[in-house]
Amino acid sequence: MPTIRALLSKQVNGSSYGITLISLQLSFKIASLAYTPIYTKVYQATLDWFPGFVFTLSSIITVLATIPVSMVGCRSGRADSYERILGN
Questions:
Q1: What is the pLDDT of residues 23-50, one digit of tens each?
Q2: What is the DSSP letter of 1?
Q3: Who has greater pLDDT, 38 or 81?
Q4: pLDDT over threshold 80, residue 82
């Protein structure tokens, strides 16, 4: 969460930063309440068919979730105009 806050502070205007951050926190809380029963039902439904389905599904969701954070991080790194260190 601190990384997301730092990236948000660079991307969002100061006046809407609080609203954006509260909306993000609220969506995290709602998602954390919803995913446990959903994953339990999916696990029970797919246990006989493919026991590792929930693990695979979680892995795919995690990788997909890192894509927007990585894109924003790359864009903010370019905007700060960091110098590239050239080696031998």
A1: 888 888 898 888 888 888 988 999 898 8
A2: -
A3: 38
A4: no
Q: Report if residue 74 sits inside a domain.
A: yes
Residue pair 40/54 in contact (Cβ under 8 Å)? The answer is no
Burial of residue 24, with CB atoms counted within 10 A of its CB: 0-12 exposed, 13-18 middle, 19 or more buried: middle
Closest CA to 4 of 88, 82, 65, 86: 65
Per-residue pLDDT at 60: 93
Provide the whole-model pTM: 0.52
Does 52 reside within a domain? Answer: yes
* Cα 13 versus chain centre, distance: 21
In a domain, 6, yes or no: yes
Domain count, the chain: 1
Question: What is the spatial distance between Cα 10 and Cα 78, in angstroms, rounded to a whole number?
Answer: 12
Distance, CA of 88 to CA of 77 (rounded, Å): 24
| Domain with 45 in it | 2-79
